[in-house]
Structure formats: structure tokens, C-alpha cells
Amino acid sequence: MQAAAAAPPPVSEDGAAVRTLELTKHYGASVALAGLTMVVPRGEVFGFLGPNGSGKTTAVKLLLGLSRSTGGEAWVLGRPAGDRETRSRVGYLPELFRYQGWLSAAEVLGLHCRLAGIGRAEWAAQISGALSTVGLTGHADARVETFSKGMQQRLGLGVALLGHPELVILDEPTSALDPVGRADTRAIIRHLRDRGCAVFLNSHLLGEVEQICDRAAVVSDGRVLAIGGLDELLGSGGVRLRLTGLTEAGRAALSRRGSLAEHDGWFVVNGVEAAAVPELVADLVATGARVYAVEPVRQTLEERFLALIEAEQARWQR
């Protein structure tokens, strides 16, 4: 009697680049990742943020099939994480990498074309295209050992772009770059997003994340503390106004909207949603005040990040 064939692994049908459901990883008694649930659509730049030891690298290893989960599920480009065929459609730049110093930039890219299963006839175009994209066209024949850290970072990004991947996972891609290199990398990431590629970005440079990401997750101790669009994560910090003729009725109108403070000639109202600002200004004008300037006040991503981490640490200390 012939044994029944094993059931194929479940497939994610929603077209997401990354989907996880209660993804968990334990190392003995240590919890590296605790119930990670998230969706990263195609054509989105997703920031994955957290302090050292928060589970970011563990999550990336699970998505790439470099480690096995303890529990939960993960899909990459619609297939279970670690699927061999799918991995050829994923570009990856690890935080720590080192190429053979005696190889030229073109030879490094050629080696990775071979490893990625790219047809030999396409190598020349892939190599020249990657070098051009990352700004290393004039260094194709230079040995890697002569490269600065920033040039090596650019080369690593070029490797991650080979084969026109549908998902690119970048771990601290701008850590060794100067301001020009960071701007170039942001432009590359935007181009990837515009052609429908998803970019999964690990970074501790929160200002960079705030400039480029569509959505982000903040993780700590293997747990997701917050996830959503940047506007959703940061919320509305409030509004500040420069005005004259503020009466008691006007001051009361400001105070009804949130906590009121005065600083350097500006009146700052914390906690006001953006949609309520026109009504607030109308109320002030109705009391006789003259409004000369209105500026939104919002937390930076760094401020929000630190607040989430501090709140989590305080919760565990109680």
C-alpha cells in the first residue's frame, strides 16, 4: 500500500511580501522572539526597530530560513519562510559582512550572481547595473581590500539588488555611509518601493527611518510594543501658535483643547489632533485674538521609540 503524500505547506494568498503569525523563537529558557505578528505588503518600506538584543536579528533569520522557529508561522512572498525557490527572489544585506579582499567588486558581484542562480548571459548587465545603482561604476576592477567602509557598504547593497528581488531585507544599510551615501541609499530604497518591491529595514538611525519608511514596528525583549504607519505611531503632539490679543476667553478655548504652555512668545497646546486645528483657530479669532502663525508639533520617532522602551522597562520592574 502506497503511503499518502505529505500535505504541502500552507500558502499565504494575500500577496503580502512578509506575513508572520505569533512567530516565536526560544533558545532554551531564553525568549528571543515572543509572538511576532505583522504584515508587510509589497511596495512598502517597513522599519523594524528595537534596541540591541530585542529580537530583530532573530526575526530576520527566521524569515530567511537561517533558523527554525519554536512556534507560530511565517510566510515570505506567499510561501513558508525558508522556501528555497523563494529565497532567490529575496535580496539581503546583513549588518556584518565581509567579502574576500583579493576579489574585485565585479568579481564579488559575479560570484553572487552564480550563487543566486542568475543565468550567465545576464551577469554582465546585472553587474554593471548594480555598480551603477550604488555609485561604484568606476571601481569595478578595484580590489575590495582597497575599499573604505562606506564603499564596502555600497558594494553589499549592490549584492542585495542582484536579480531584481521582490523583497529586500537591509540590516543597518547606512551605518558606514556619509551623508551623501545615506541620501543615495534612500533614493535606491524609494526606487525599489516604486517598482513594487518591499523593503524590510533594520536600523538604529531613527532619523533615517523617519524619512524613508511607510510603516514601522518597535520591538523590545522579543515583543512588539507598537506597529503602524508613522503618522499613527507618532500621533499629533499638538500645535503651537503665535498670536496677539489673547483674552481670558481665548485662553480658555486653548485650554479646552489640551494642556497649554507658553515658550519664546509661542502658545503651545499639547494633544491637539490635526483635524481639530482649524476649529481651534476659529474659536480664537471669535474671541478677538489675531493669529499670525500655526505650526504642528509632533514627537520625533526617536522620542516615541524611547518612550515605548522606557514604558516597557518600567512595566517589567513593577
Q: Can you tell me about this structure?
A:
The structure is a single chain. The chain is an alpha/beta fold. 35% of the residues lie in helices and 27% in strands. The protein is built from eleven helices and 14 strands. It has helices at 56-64, 84-87, 105-115, 123-133, 149-160, 179-194, 206-212, 230-234, 248-257, 277-286, 301-317; strands at 18-27, 30-40, 45-49, 71-76, 79-80, 90-93, 167-171, 198-202, 215-220, 223-229, 238-244, 259-263, 266-270, 290-297. The strands form three sheets. It has a six-stranded mixed beta sheet with strand order 6-7-8-3-9-10, with helices on both faces. Strands 2-1-4-5 form a four-stranded antiparallel beta sheet, with helices on one face. The chain has a four-stranded antiparallel beta sheet with strand order 12-13-11-14. A hairpin with a 2-residue loop joins strand 9 and strand 10 (223-229). Helix 3 (105-115) packs across helix 4 and helix 4 (123-133) crosses helix 5. The radius of gyration is 24 Å and the shape is elongated.
Offer a quick outline of the entry.
By secondary structure, this protein is of the alpha/beta class. It has helices at residues 56-64, 84-87, 105-115, 123-133, 149-160, 179-194, 206-212, 230-234, 248-257, 277-286, 301-317, and strands at residues 18-27, 30-40, 45-49, 71-76, 79-80, 90-93, 167-171, 198-202, 215-220, 223-229, 238-244, 259-263, 266-270, 290-297.
Largest sheet descriptor: 6 strands, mixed
Give the helices and strands as they follow along the chain. Answer: EEEHEEHEHHHEHEHEEHEHEEHEH
Fraction in beta strands? 25-35%
- Measured as a percent range, the helix fraction is 25-40%
CA-based gyration radius: 24 Å
Q: Oligomeric status of the shown chains?
A: single chain
Strand order of the largest sheet: 6-7-8-3-9-10
Roughly what is the average pLDDT, rounded to an integer? Answer: 86
State the low-pLDDT regions, or none.
1-12
Total number of strands: 14
Task: Please tell me what the overall shape is.
Answer: elongated
Tally of alpha and pi helices: 11
Kindly, what is the distance between the CA atoms of the first and last residues, rounded to a whole number of angstroms?
Answer: 61 Å
Helix/strand-derived category reads alpha/beta
